[in-house]
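Module 6 notes. Inverse folding takes a fixed backbone as the condition and produces residue identities as the prediction. Think of it as a translation problem where the source language is geometry and the target language is the twenty amino acids. Below is one complete input and output pair. Work through it position by position during the lab.
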């Protein structure tokens, strides 16, 4: 099943190129807002699934073109992001040590929304294409063997970054947790629809140009190990997000006016725009192209705008 929030956060189920309003089927779930509702549904999904399927089968579909799709998880309790978690098309001889960072729930935006680049002296702004895992039940000290039973589903995720901010060595919070730096969507796909999450192609386009194109088979620490490690540190709750990392070789600068599209097999296509009131520009090289020019380790040059002459 593919679950959608649309318009004023009505809950829907995707049915072909339409969405069926199924919000009436879940109104008895205690909630004060849309995230309470979706997290409550995730926690109780086994008892509500048949009701949702019946509502979706019997309801009239609303064309996707006539509605506004919202983020399917508006305010998760926790967003854990795995760091340096790909083997970069097999070019790394061994995995980096397992590691992660938090991203603020207020960073969430949805399809058609805008990632806003702030007035800060970043050397570059990037967005990383990622598969995100959505937790289905309370998870604490879960073994890798039991980890996948705690997965509710999957969603596209873009990890926005403002890199190179001073002071050196004190950057992750201010680099990753800015408002609008966590686009997700367009819908939440239940785990049964994805036969193997470790064999999914992920693609990201900027203004129609393919920049990232990689497979989750290249993930260094696989999903069960990520869940095992994260839940050894803190408890994860229904509706929480684990962003599983990216292949960095295709990363390039996000700039004012860009249309960014992310598609993971089976998860639909997430499209957002980028806005920078300072109208800064950078070279469009990907990290791989930068490396091929013997510029590895050198920041992609900012061409114009505030902070360019550094």
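Target side of the pair, the amino acids:
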């Amino acid at each position: 099943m593919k679950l959608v929030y649309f318009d004023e956060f009505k809950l829907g189920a995707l049915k072909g190129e339409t969405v069926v309003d199924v919000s009436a089927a879940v109104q008895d779930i205690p909630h004060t807002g849309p995230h309470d509702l979706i997290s409550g549904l995730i926690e109780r999904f086994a008892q509500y699934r048949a009701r949702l399927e019946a509502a979706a089968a019997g309801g009239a579909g609303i064309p996707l073109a006539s509605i506004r799709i919202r983020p399917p998880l508006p305010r998760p309790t926790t967003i854990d992001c795995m760091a340096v978690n790909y083997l970069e098309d097999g070019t790394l001889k061994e995995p980096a040590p397992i590691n992660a960072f938090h991203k603020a729930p207020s960073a969430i935006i949805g399809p058609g929304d805008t990632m806003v680049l702030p007035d800060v002296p970043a050397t570059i702004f990037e967005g990383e294409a990622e598969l995100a895992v959505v937790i289905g039940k309370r998870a604490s000290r879960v073994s890798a063997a039991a980890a996948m039973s705690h997965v509710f589903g999957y969603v596209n995720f873009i990890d926005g970054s403002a890199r190179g901010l001073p002071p050196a060595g004190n950057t992750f919070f201010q680099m990753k947790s800015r408002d609008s730096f966590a686009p997700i969507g367009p819908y939440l796909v239940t785990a049964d629809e994805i036969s193997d999450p470790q064999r999914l192609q992920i693609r990201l386009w900027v203004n129609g140009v393919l920049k990232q194109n990689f497979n989750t088979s290249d993930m260094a620490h696989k999903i069960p190990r990520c869940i095992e490690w994260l839940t050894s540190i803190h408890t994860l709750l229904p509706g929480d997000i684990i962003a599983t990392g990216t292949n960095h070789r295709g990363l390039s600068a996000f700039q004012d006016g860009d249309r960014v599209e992310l598609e993971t097999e089976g998860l639909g296509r997430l499209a957002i725009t980028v806005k920078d009131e300072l109208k800064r520009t950078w070279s469009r090289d990907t990290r791989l192209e930068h490396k091929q020019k013997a510029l590895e380790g050198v920041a992609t040059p900012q061409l114009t705008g505030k902070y360019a002459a550094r």
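Reference fact for the lab report: The helical segments are 34-43, 45-58, 172-176, 223-231, 287-292.
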